[in-house]
């Protein structure tokens, strides 16, 4: 029987709200082996299209503001069977101008380098008759929550989200029909957030606005056909006297429950405007929400007098408390940390961040959780109350993206490592792809997501998350083609073409395209890719003499082999010309493929030719011509091997030399961010599978299993973040110990970059790899080794869920494969036997 298992509109299963023409895609399921889509009819009340594709079907029908459209799909399989399904989407404002005005308190001034007090806005209104439908359309400069008649509207945290505020700001639409009464009171609380609050360890504030501002329109439709619009204007009231006394990303939140509504002094709100003219767009990214609730695994009293709660897992989120009894004015203080040292919270790695929640109790029983901040933590230290009088739990917060990947195997350490990768990813997908969730940073570092994106798209449906962030990547690209190293750039305004970090503009959309097959994303991002490669080409040619020198990227700034286990920042950066040249070549190769897909043949030929010139220059300048680097280091071999920049013979020699360097280093890696994602591929794809497994399972530092062995529950920023002697590596960028004003210590225990090894778990251990976009054609070619006796994993693709599960027993390798409808799988067994499988379930043995 054929059925439509899922119908998505703009990558959402239902309820999409959009200001642009949405893409429609659907997943088919069938018990008929080999089934595939013959044709489909997609329609609304006044629009219809026929298609033979399950993806990239663009709605071209009428679009009226604030209108619901029901999309119906009738799919016919090659078998002749049919299936039907429907889903709805709603249009946003489209081009309808706002009648609401931005409002603020112009009299409120806060010091530079600090975060503002949360600003409260209030409006009371009456519904004149029976309400048929009502919604609020709102946004803010800052982060906001709205409360209608005392109840929170929606489930989102940190709306409207972090964007390049000068270019685009999201707005949200919330249905409030069921929340309305005859007399109504709406309150909005706006914290400084990313727009006005302090950012970076330098504590820069007022970056996107002088103070918070709010914009809203409330639409109330009555059963008699009339409609009211309540808009933000000077009739609204404003105050900074609410119970949220302090709120910012790094220092936390202070809440005074003794502050009552009647204590707040209100005044008329002021009309204001934003600094530039950003587009206001219906939310197109994934909102941050409570995804999971955690309870402590233990609690004990430290020698310093704090009650320490251990949640057993490092994550990003906030505490949630239920106070059973308390006196008015009783003050509770909660501090957060990733690790303990000698039974106490270790907070030096937080640098200037206080990561503290202060709650001032009212009388009796009460509940509370912060709403305008979040922390990265495993441990919480509490003062001011005894554990018998309080229940402490925690909310896990991250973008509401669906999980699409699974992995398990017979090695417990690898299962734990996979979970560490998963948790670090979730912890750093809080509205943007951050570097870490705990210290005075939490920024969208481009290099981290550049190397992690191919892992991320296996584990999660990143479509809306990446779509949002990549819009800012394009918006903040400099005139010369470079980017800020963090996007959005809040406080980090220097724009330059930086290898690997800048290559995010190619690697991220390419990974997303291979995983989801969205051609519109490639088309939108293609000009950004071209502009970046033009900048890289300029830096290669700048002051370069000689035929090959013009293709070696040694000028400008590069992070090089960033965070390699040996050396300091200067030594890492000295490797820049190797890493930059290799990444430049790889991006040229990818962009040539993008140009082919977009049917730009001449440009595809140009980038392909440029790639070949760069890879030849790399071998000519950096090697002896026979696969040996003139200056040897692991990363220098890994990148050309994985990026295919070598001839067959040179590749064999490079791989052999790489293995030698690893052996000379005690069978340990010595790679930084740019090469670590590819080291296992470079080994296993050149005949050194067992060496790849040995490196993966290495329990000495540096290595992934070293972190697991020491009890890590997330991925670390530095291989030796926690040294074998138990001390924390607070190493500065200049290689010295400790931290000061100019050389802040750099160590995070929740940093996903090295978790990019997860890509090898999917592509080699369980063997699932896309051959064409969206996995319409894919390969399953498991590479067993390392003593593993079984492994299983899955990836939910746009066509359905792919499953690869293998087991070794009685000297036989048995592989179970599940192939979705409309897809083709190339199966390759460990003995080299190959099969082709179309939709259905199969078992292969060798």
Write the layout of secondary structure elements.
Elements: E1 3-9, E2 16-18, E3 23-29, E4 37-44, E5 47-51, E6 57-58, E7 68-77, E8 82-91, E9 103-104, E10 119-126, E11 131-141, E12 143-148, E13 151-152, E14 168-175, E15 183-191, H1 193-196, E16 213-222, E17 227-231, E18 237-239, E19 244-248, E20 252-256, E21 267-268, E22 270-271, E23 279-282, E24 288-294, E25 298-301, E26 307-323, E27 331-337, E28 339-341, E29 344-346, E30 356-360, E31 366-368, E32 375-383, E33 390-399, E34 405-409, H2 412-427, E35 429-430, E36 432-433, H3 446-459, H4 463-475, H5 504-516, H6 519-541, H7 569-574, H8 576-597, H9 601-622, H10 634-642, H11 648-664, H12 679-684, H13 689-696, H14 704-709, H15 758-765, E37 768-770, E38 777-780, E39 790-797, E40 800-809, E41 812-828, E42 834-845
Parallel strand pairs: 2-8, 14-23, 20-30, 38-41
Antiparallel strand pairs: 1-3, 3-6, 4-5, 4-7, 7-8, 9-22, 10-15, 10-18, 11-14, 11-16, 12-13, 12-15, 16-17, 18-21, 19-20, 24-33, 25-26, 26-31, 26-32, 26-33, 27-30, 27-32, 28-29, 34-39, 35-36, 37-38, 39-40, 40-41, 41-42
Helix pairs in contact: 3-5, 3-15, 4-5, 5-6, 6-8, 8-9, 8-10, 10-11
Major sheet = 10 strands, mixed
Secondary-structure class? alpha+beta
| Proportion of residues in β-strands | 25-35%
Q: Enumerate the spans where pLDDT stays under 50 for 5 or more consecutive residues.
A: 739-743
Terminal Cα span: 32 Å
Tally of separate helices: 15
Average pLDDT metric: 95
Give the tally of β-strands.
42
Mind telling me the C-alpha Rg? 28 Å
């Amino acid at each position: 029987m054929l059925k439509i298992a899922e119908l998505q509109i703009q990558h959402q299963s239902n309820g999409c709200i959009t200001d642009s023409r949405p893409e429609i895609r659907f997943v088919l399921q069938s018990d008929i082996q080999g089934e595939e889509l013959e044709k489909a009819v997609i329609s609304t009340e006044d629009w219809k299209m026929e298609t033979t594709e399950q993806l990239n079907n663009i709605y071209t029908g009428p679009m009226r503001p604030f209108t619901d459209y029901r999309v119906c799909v009738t799919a016919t399989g090659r078998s002749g069977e049919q299936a039907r399904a429907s889903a709805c989407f709603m249009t946003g404002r489209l081009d309808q101008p706002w009648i609401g005005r931005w409002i603020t308190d112009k009299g409120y001034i806060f010091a530079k380098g600090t975060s503002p007090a949360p600003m409260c806005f209030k409006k009371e209104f009456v519904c004149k008759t029976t309400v048929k439908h009502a919604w609020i359309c709102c946004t803010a400069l800052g982060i906001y929550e709205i409360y209608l008649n005392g109840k929170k509207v929606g489930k989102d945290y940190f709306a409207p989200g972090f964007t390049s505020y000068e270019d685009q700001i999201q707005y949200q639409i919330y249905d409030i029909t069921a929340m309305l009464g005859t007399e109504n009171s709406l309150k909005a609380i706006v914290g400084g957030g990313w727009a006005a609050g302090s950012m970076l360890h330098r504590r820069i504030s007022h970056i996107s606005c002088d103070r918070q501002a709010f914009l809203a329109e409330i639409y109330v439709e009555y059963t008699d056909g009339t409609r009211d619009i309540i808009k933000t204007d000077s009739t609204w009231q404003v105050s900074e006297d609410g119970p949220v006394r302090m709120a910012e990303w790094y220092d936390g939140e202070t809440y005074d429950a003794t502050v009552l509504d009647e204590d707040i002094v209100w005044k008329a709100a002021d009309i204001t405007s934003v600094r530039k003219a950003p587009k206001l767009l219906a939310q197109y990214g994934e909102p941050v929400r409570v995804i999971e609730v955690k309870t402590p695994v233990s609690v004990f009293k430290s020698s310093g007098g704090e009650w320490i709660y251990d949640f057993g897992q490092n994550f990003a989120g906030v505490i949630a408390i239920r106070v059973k009894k308390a006196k008015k004015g009783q003050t509770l203080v909660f501090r957060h940390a990733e690790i303990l040292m000698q039974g106490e919270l270790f907070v030096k790695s937080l640098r200037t961040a206080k990561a503290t929640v202060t709650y001032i109790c009212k009388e009796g029983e009460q509940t509370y959780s912060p709403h305008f901040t979040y922390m990265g933590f495993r441990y919480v230290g509490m003062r001011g109350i005894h554990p018998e009088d309080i229940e402490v739990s925690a909310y896990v917060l991250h973008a509401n993206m669906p999980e699409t990947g699974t992995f398990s195997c017979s090695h417990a350490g690898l299962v734990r490592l996979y979970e560490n990768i998963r948790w670090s990813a979730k912890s750093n997908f809080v509205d943007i792809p951050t570097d870490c969730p705990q210290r005075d940073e939490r920024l969208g570092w481009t290099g981290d997501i550049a190397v992690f994106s191919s892992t991320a798209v296996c584990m999660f449906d990143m479509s809306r998350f990446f779509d949002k962030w990549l819009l800012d990547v394009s918006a903040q690209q400099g005139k010369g083609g470079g980017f800020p190293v963090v996007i959005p750039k809040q406080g980090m305004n220097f724009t330059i073409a930086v290898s690997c970090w800048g290559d995010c503009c190619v690697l991220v959309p390419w990974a997303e395209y291979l995983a989801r097959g969205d051609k519109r994303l490639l088309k939108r991002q293609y000009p950004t890719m071209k502009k970046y490669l033009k900048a890289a080409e300029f830096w290669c040619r700048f002051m370069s003499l000689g035929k090959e020198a013009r293709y070696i990227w040694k000028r400008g700034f590069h992070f090089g082999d960033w965070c390699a286990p040996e050396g300091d920042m200067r030594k890492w950066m000295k490797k820049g010309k190797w890493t930059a040249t290799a990444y430049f070549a790889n991006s040229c190769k990818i962009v040539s493929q993008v140009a082919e897909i977009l049917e730009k043949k001449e440009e595809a030929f140009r980038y392909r030719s440029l790639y070949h010139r760069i890879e030849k220059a790399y071998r000519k300048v950096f090697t002896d011509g026979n696969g040996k680097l003139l200056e040897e280091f692991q990363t220098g071999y890994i990148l050309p091997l994985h990026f295919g920049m070598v001839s067959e013979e040179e590749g064999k020699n490079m791989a052999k030399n790489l293995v030698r360097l690893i052996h000379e280093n005690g069978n340990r890696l010595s790679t930084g961010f740019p090469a670590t994602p590819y080291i296992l591929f470079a080994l296993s794809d050149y005949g050194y599978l067992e060496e790849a497994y040995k490196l993966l399972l290495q329990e000495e530092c540096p290595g992934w299993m070293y972190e697991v062995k020491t009890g890590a529950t997330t991925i670390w920023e530095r291989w030796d973040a926690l040294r074998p002697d138990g001390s924390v590596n607070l190493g500065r960028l200049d290689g010295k110990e400790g931290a000061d004003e100019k050389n802040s210590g750099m160590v995070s225990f929740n940093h996903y970059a090295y978790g990019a090894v997860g890509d090898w778990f999917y592509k080699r251990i369980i063997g699932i790899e896309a051959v064409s976009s969206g996995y319409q054609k894919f390969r399953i070619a498991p590479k067993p080794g390392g003593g593993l006796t079984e492994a299983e994993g899955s990836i939910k693709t746009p066509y359905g869920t792919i499953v690869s599960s293998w087991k070794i027993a009685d000297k036989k390798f048995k592989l179970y494969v599940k192939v979705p409808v409309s897809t083709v799988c190339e199966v390759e067994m460990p003995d080299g036997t190959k099969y082709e499988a179309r939709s259905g379930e199969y078992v292969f043995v060798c």
